[in-house]
Design goal:
158 residues, 6-stranded antiparallel sheet, 28% strand, globular
């Protein structure tokens, strides 16, 4: 699987200035869906899991732990940590940047899942893992929390 380095802050700044995004730091050009900043659709209502993934990655890269925590299911509780525990764990990252691979969308029993390889680069340290996002399909009785794309699990251990 080919990974794409996404310099999150550069992409955000370029989008705010309405310029082309800064190219990825790898020599291979990024595919179109990963080379552009996601749309301005709020991640909590977006129908595209990449919007949530990129918004979460941005929060991690700027060390906005409360926002990163909120991208987990049940507004963070699905991480298995309290917000303070999450901040203590993820706060060990000094200057995180993220490499995001190509994701895979799958459906199962009323839910959709989006799995993607992610590597956190923190100085000389590389932390590889997978992030799985989930949302309930439009089934009767599903509430807004179930219908939003959210992080279901990750193997990343900062």
């Amino acid at each position: 699987m080919r990974c794409i380095s996404v310099p999150i802050l550069a992409l955000v700044l370029a989008a705010c200035q309405q310029q082309e995004p800064v190219p990825a730091t790898t020599a291979t050009p990024a595919p179109a869906p990963l080379a552009v900043l996601p749309s301005a659709v709020p991640p909590s209502t977006s129908r595209d899991p990449q919007d949530v993934l990129f918004a979460w990655a941005k929060a991690v890269s700027v060390k906005d732990w409360a926002t990163a925590y909120g991208y987990w299911g049940n507004h963070g509780a699905a991480s298995g940590m309290t917000l303070d525990q999450f901040k203590a764990s993820w706060g060990r990252l000094a200057q995180p940047d993220l490499e995001i691979g190509k994701g895979q969308l799958e459906g199962a029993a009323g839910s959709s899942f989006y799995s993607v390889s992610v590597t956190i680069i923190d100085g000389q340290r590389r932390i590889p893992g997978e992030v799985v996002l989930r949302r309930s399909n439009d089934v009767p009785g599903a509430d807004a929390e179930q219908l939003r794309w959210h992080i279901e699990s990750t193997t990343l251990k900062p």
